[in-house]
Amino acid sequence: MTVSIIYSVLLLTSLGIIAAIILYVVSKKFYVYEDPLITEVEEILPAANCAGCGSPGCRSFAEKLVSTEDISDLFCPVGGNDVMESIANLLGKEVTKKDPTVAVLLCQGSCDMRPKTTQFQGPDSCAISALVFSGETDCQYGCLGKGDCVDACLFDAMYMDKDTGLPVIITDKCTSCGACVEACPKNIIEMRPKNKRDLKIYVGCMNEDKGGIAKRACAVACIGCSKCFDICPKDAITMENNLAYIDAQLCTLCRKCVDVCPTHSIVETNFPPRKKKPISTITKGKKIDSPSKEKYIDKKVKAIVEPLKSNNDA
Amino acid sequence: MLKTFPKGGIHPPENKITASKPIKRLDPPKVVYVPISQHIGIPSKIIVERKEKVTIGQIIAKSGGYVSSNIHSPVAGTVTKLDKIFDSSGYKKQCIVIRTDLKDQSNFELIDSPLKTDIQLSKKDILQHITDYGIVGLGGATFPSHVKLNIKKDKHIDCLIINGVECEPYLTADHRLMLEKAEEILVGIEILMFALHIDKAIIGIENNKKNAIANFKELTKNNDKIQVAALKIKYPQGSEKQLVRALLKREVPKNGLPLDVGVIVHNVGTIFAIYEAVQYNKPLTERVVTVTGKTIKDPSNFWVKIGTPVIDLINEVGGLPEDTRKILNGGPMMGKAIKNTDVPVAKGTSGILVISKEEAERKKCTNCIRCNECVFVCPMGLEPYLLMNLTEKKMYETALNEDITTCIECGSCSYVCPSHRPLLDYIRFGKSIIKTLEIAKDKK
Amino acid sequence: MSTKPIIISASPHVHSDRTSKKLMYDVVIALIPAFLVSLYVFGIGALIVTAVAVISCILFEYLIQKYLLKATVTINDGSALLTGILLAFNLPSNLPIWMIIVGSLVAIGVAKMSFGGLGFNIFNPALVGRVFLLISFPVQMTMWPTALENQTKIADAVTGATPLGIIKEGLQFGETMTDLSYKIPTNLDMFLGFTGGSLGEMSIIALLIGGLYLIYKKVITWHIPVTMLFTMAVITGIFWMINPEQYANPLIHLLSGGAILGAFFMATDLVTSPMTKKGMVIFAFSIGLITVVIRLFGAYPEGVSFAIIIMNAFVPLINKYFKPRRFGSKIKSKII
Q1: CB–CB of B425 and A127 under 8 A?
Q2: Which residues 88-127 on chain A approach chain C with CB closer than 8 angstroms?
Q3: What does the pLDDT look like over A89-139, one tens digit per residue?
Q4: Which residues constitute the domain of residue B270?
Q5: Is the domain of A260 the same as that of A172?
Q6: CB distance from B383 to chain C under 8 Å?
Q7: Pick from C54, C137, C32, C61: nearest CA to C92
Q8: Do C125 and C270 contact (CB within 8 A), yes or no?
């Protein structure tokens, strides 16, 4: 009895020792040096693995950050400037500041604005239906409404609005990783700068058809009338292929173009209700509380961009 | 035993209701919309301007590159605008809009010319004519014919195959052409054999066109260079690779062309167009179109000017039926659903098919029950269920290794699937993604 | 123009009239002759077992889809019905009802729904249910009422084993095949189904009629049944020729047990069989081989269910390695 106990104890102990020796030898022999900085950098990164930076995941982005000398081209859109700054401090390298951006949908062709003339039958995917034809409406530039962008979004920052048939971007949750931009076969999602109050002005249309045709297909289409182009005091608006485009860098958010647009295809988001005087008090760095719920929100704007506070029920 | 290809294939209901209807000529349409990308390859370049007067057969868009083709005016009239019009691709494409000058008598002249058998042109001139007069493959792929005929010296061609299979249900355009223009087609074959130094030609016809087979057999009785082969009725026999396999037991290699096994395949329509271009200097400005459908009052075959809007043809057969839910450009297996009836007829339009309510709706897709029907019917030996799953899961690399790119998009898999799964939709999507990925790789 | 907008979809625009539902009901139709014979042989018991199995299978599928998965309920696609019938066909006609319900729960809940429902299951659900019951309740599962004696009442008197059981036991006690041939039913009885056994597996003629119907309807191909039965016949034939006193002849092997039911209805189950003809032949050959090995050398007298379940597990592998020959690939039989 005792012999067998001793026997098994000895056997197990020696097995353990042998295993330990093997483990030790292997770990020494096959040791790969890895910069501890990589792990540290990875910990700072948001760990979303969204590939918005261009690398397949946060770990590989961390490796890239550590190994490259000049990291001014690299940027984590999800983490933004704060994350990049702390990485720069850690690595002792220079980073460039980028304005935070947010995805916007350049189409307002909701069901009642843009009547459907055909019906698609097939897989529920924008990319597949884009292979077959230009869309259920007569506008061949606008949203297909099958929600590839919503599927692509890893941050639950998008959902399909059943009434309008268009995707809605929840600006608070949007990390501007760019997955939706990639997913959209019509290229109607654009990354635009996001300021503190998320005030944006953009042309919510991509229709390059001539005015009459565009208007017939969609009530809120840009008809290329150039009125906004003429009124813009900062030359921020360019006209190309019967379509206006507002350069966000030059735009001062004066909202003159919104007023003149005959088809209401220029979208303004989160502006306070119109007063007699156009606002000019958006000063940089000034602390502004997020808008309260009672705040008036333009109906049309609501259809496009979920207001900051009311996204909780989404 | 009739010849056919061994692996896969289906037999959908034929519905060739217009088989006994002679090809009718129509009055010229009031307006034609001539798309500039009617062929595979680079779109042609417009060389006319607004308000310019054009004559019948005048070049209005020049070939935009090597794999491209000239486009000629199908009518005499005035260019009213250069605009974007929905074509059969479902997108708006650049079109030349010409208003027909109804006073111009050349629009009404009958173009049926007498048979001309002696070949006067030299080999080089024949090929030049085919290039100049905008001949493209009329079987549906619309590949510019001069590219197909420009054979490199190291390739040896020993057989010309004439594709008179027309395996698509409903369509009878080629069938009627073979009956009515048989002698012209035979001259066309002689022209190509002469130009390409080929001694042997086989006309492959499916056995549901017995009168065409008998007709050709009678005409080629004393000609041992041209054979006529009856084929078993099986879809997709009209596909080049399947036809070569059926007639010659030669298998075109993966991602290869019939050229690789010493064969060149042309559709009967193309042969007729070549005949007209070579013998009468006539550009490709009209083709035979079958306008059909179970609910159509008087389905028929027509000689149609390129650019005629579909609505003109439908009015000719008794108007659009009330319960129409789908209008197809082409046959039911490979045709494209068009967005509206203003879509013009292009060089590749072999038929207009109107489908009513019951048949138009897609059935609800249910779970794959792995019944392996799709694997059995795939003529290319692929596994459609697997390719669909891989594409759905975005595993494009694996799909590429499973030969997704060799799919000929015949639709047999989607046709048989008892769960109504959109197999081909996904495979086509996977193919397009792989294509873009490869282009991106090439650029790098 | 019609009031509804016209439809745009990708080609093809026509579809054959085959549906998965029709396929399932075709199999159900093919099983009717065997069911009628079992009704004649085992009487009301057969009806009760089948009814309980079918109802509980459909009910479990409904409950799981509706309340657990919260998905669309697809009980009318015929697959649960089929599973129920096949499960019943693999059970003795006097099995306690609660056991049948447990079997159905395992078949639908464990073997089918937990893998994702129709089309995703790796193992044949009916066989998983049967094997589960066989392992859990070996006594009840291997006692069959005598044929043709209990048609009007539910049998509780337990008698005759299957021919295979008799042979297995007999050989263990040193009897020879000559002795045993008097104990087992005649070949004709076995062919017609007047023998002990699970309720659906004994009538060879009825199953053959159903099987031929399925082949005629193109629900199954000949590859699996023919290969499997041929393999079994050849291997048992070799052993029989070596020693006819120790091994039963191939005919007995084919006519008894679940060989025919397995070959035509269980192994050919669309979901759990390979996708290519080549793969099917390999699959069916292996089933035949494993069946014979279990029958001749294993502890159980019967091995069809085990063989099929074992080979079900290999189907994904077979699908991976036995591809159809791609058109235009030069090598004749390409194995990737």
Answers
A1: no
A2: 116-122
A3: 888 888 888 878 888 999 988 888 888 888 898 888 999 999 888 888 888
A4: 123-280
A5: yes
A6: yes
A7: C137
A8: no
